[in-house]
Write a structure and sequence with these properties.
The complex is a heterodimer of chains A (151) and B (319). With 151 residues, chain A is of the alpha+beta class. Chain A has helices at residues 3-6, 20-30, 50-57, 61-65, 70-85, 90-93, 107-117, 136-150, and strands spanning 34-38, 44-49, 101-102, 121-126, 129-135. In chain A, the strands form 2 sheets. Chain A has a 3-stranded mixed beta sheet. In chain A, helix 7 (107-117) links the parallel strand 3 (101-102) and strand 4 (121-126). In chain A, helix 3 (50-57) packs across helix 5. The two termini of chain A are 16 Å apart. Chain B is α/β, with parallel strands linked by helices and 319 residues long. Helices cover 37% and strands 28% of the residues of chain B. Chain B contains 10 helices and 14 strands. A 10-stranded mixed beta sheet of chain B has the order 5-4-1-8-9-10-11-12-13-14, sandwiched between helices. A 4-stranded mixed beta sheet of chain B has the order 3-2-6-7. In chain B, helix 5 links the parallel strand 9 and strand 10 (189-192). Chain B is globular. Classes of the chains: A alpha+beta (151), B alpha/beta (319). The interface between A and B is medium-sized, with 24 and 26 residues.
Chain lengths: 151, 319
């Protein structure tokens, strides 16, 4: 099976000049954890997720996470930092270049890319332009369906 | 047909989409409860209908507009099921629901339509930016329908101007002030319901000559290539760069009354993509519009069904 058969065809994206505040609002309304970043021609230039925002609000948060004492202090720092981060641009926090997959790739190739890079959502492109997004759930569901076809 | 290099060919804009809820009841009583015999919920709104029919005719498009809440989710999920690409702008408000009730005889029809959500300034800004980006990926832009609150009534004019500046062909199907202002931006194609024509130009449409007069009025306001006005329930007038045409159906037995207009415009866009001659385009569009009205489900049954209806379409050039 090919990616284009299982992907979501919602191509919501942000541009690098979006503010982090706007990005957070879109993530909330859209109920997703991350979005592709595109240029004016819809070429994918990066990917931005909740994790990138947290990392900026709380540098080295992964290290903090291992300590129980993180919660009260970390939260205070985070709330303070969030206000200044909201005006920053997506450009400053996005991961670039983005990991993408061509719409003609097989689901097996997608699985490989996802697990290798530990990403949940992968933008799907055709000729470099965003045409959809594939999630782990899309992938698992396609494997389930393929299994049913065989049995 | 999908264009090369990720090009999606057609953008359809539905600023105030809806969930259409259709109930069929045995008998609608003035008081008390009625059990529904059949319920159908589907994504509605002019641009969404156009995208659905384009897909059925074999063409990809991208749906744009505002959606929100669980009703908005229903719209998005349906686009997903139909494999139609969407770049919808998520809003805080809820997508409206339009309710239609018909009884089993089909004679009693009741409709309730909601105004829709309020669009906040940042949501409108977000939509416009996304629209500007998407224009790079399309050659045709369709926009139509009512506007939600918070969206200015010159929005169609603005979207048309931007698309035209970038060399895109624009299609408009609207009413009232948004239509009037849209016309002034000179879209390439405009389809107007005769009821609005009389509303705007003050004279009712009784004979062909009244339509020609109305078209002349519209021509003064904007430089439009194609103007389509319905003449009677099964006949339209097309004003084209090659002259006036009257297109009529020799048989007319519809099972529903709404949706034909969107189908007509969708088919016309498809005919331009496929490079049909003008006369072929008009006949194909009319046959598609009729096919949409021959069953309760949204859209057309198949392209073959459309082809079969073509012999019922009569085209006459008006001198």
């Amino acid at each position: 099976m090919k990616v284009k058969e299982i992907m979501d065809r919602d191509i919501t994206a942000v541009t690098p000049d979006f503010t982090v505040g706007d990005l957070i609002e879109i993530l909330v309304l859209h109920r997703v954890s991350g979005l592709p970043v595109v240029d004016d021609e819809c070429n994918i230039i990066g990917f931005v997720s909740e994790k990138d925002i947290i990392e900026m609000a709380l540098p080295g948060y992964a290290a903090y996470l291992r300590k129980i004492s993180f919660i009260p202090d970390g939260l205070k720092i985070m709330i303070k930092n969030m206000k200044s981060i909201a005006d920053k641009s997506v450009r400053e926090i996005m991961k670039s270049p983005a990991i993408v997959v061509d719409q003609e790739a097989t689901t097996l190739e997608v699985a490989h890319i996802m697990f290798k890079n530990n990403v949940r959502r992968l933008p799907v492109v055709k000729g470099g332009k965003l045409v959809g997004i594939v999630s782990r759930a899309n992938l698992l569901f396609s494997f389930l369906e393929e299994g049913e076809d065989e049995s | 047909m999908e264009g090369g290099k990720g090009n999606l060919a057609v953008i359809t804009v539905t600023l105030n989409p809806a969930v259409d809820e259709k109930y069929r009841v045995k008998e609608l009583k003035h008081r008390g409860w009625t059990r529904a015999v059949e319920v159908d919920r589907s994504a509605g709104g002019k641009g969404i209908n156009v995208s659905r029919i384009l897909k059925q005719l074999g063409h990809d498009s991208i749906v744009m507009g505002f959606i929100g809440g669980f009703t908005g989710e229903l719209v998005r999920v349906e686009m997903e099921k139909l494999e139609i690409t969407s770049a919808l702008c998520y809003i805080k408000g809820d997508t409206r629901i339009d309710t239609f009730i018909t009884d089993l005889t089909g004679e009693l029809q009741v409709g309730i339509t909601e105004e829709g959500p309020v669009i906040r300034p940042q949501e409108l800004r977000r939509f416009k930016r996304s629209y500007g980006r998407m224009l790079n990926r399309a050659d045709f832009v369709y926009m139509g329908g009512s506007l939600p609150k918070g969206v200015p009534d010159d929005i169609y004019a603005e979207l048309i101007s931007e698309a035209k500046d970038r060399g895109k062909m624009t299609f408009l199907e609207a009413a009232g002030t948004p239509l009037l202002k849209g016309i002034e931006a000179s879209p390439d194609f405009v389809k107007i319901d005769h009821r609005y024509v009389s509303e705007i130009y003050g004279h009712s449409i009784k004979e062909l000559n009244d339509i020609i007069k109305a078209v002349r009025e519209i021509e003064k306001k904007g430089n439009i290539k194609y103007i389509v006005i319905d003449y009677h329930e099964s006949g339209d007038v097309f004003r084209t760069p090659e002259g006036y045409f009257l297109v009529e159906l020799t048989e007319y037995k519809p099972v529903k009354i709404l949706g034909g207009g969107n189908a007509l415009v969708a088919a016309f866009i498809a005919s331009l993509i496929e490079g049909m001659s003008l006369e072929e385009s008009i006949i194909f569009s009319m046959a598609t519009a009729y096919e949409e009205l021959l069953h309760l489900e949204e859209g057309i049954r198949s392209r073959e069904h459309v082809e079969r209806l073509k012999p019922l379409v009569k085209l006459r050039r008006l001198e």
